[in-house]
Amino acid sequence: MNSIVFRVGSTAILPFALLLSLYLLWRGHNEPGGGFIGGLIAAAGYACYALPRGRTALKRALPIDPLQLLALGIGSALTSGLFGFANGTAYLTHAWTEVAGIALGTPLLFDAGVYLTVLGAILTFLNLFLEQ
What we know:
- By secondary structure, this protein is mostly helical.
- The protein is built from six helices and two strands.
- It has one domain (4-131).
- Helix 1 runs antiparallel to helix 2 (35-50) and helix 2 crosses helix 3.
């Protein structure tokens, strides 16, 4: 995997993969996309970046440990359901608000949790793979 083409190309792929993943995360609660596919695309971008460079490059490129991403994602997804309890409805009943003309709700919080969970799980596996 020590290809110069792969190494140079992956440097360009990572930012585009992250931007595309965030776009899909944002539009996912209204149209196709969402946290799962966004997390997969972000993880694929990090995998393309880390495979020719190794584990230390992956750790440098990540702002947070993959297991912490996983924990934050599960916590975010679980927390999104609590807003239903606060409004006196069932767990995971979504709540909506409007900020500057943009409808924001707990589905986005849930999708962000799924995004971080998928990204953290795949990057944890990749980290263990690169360790060997």
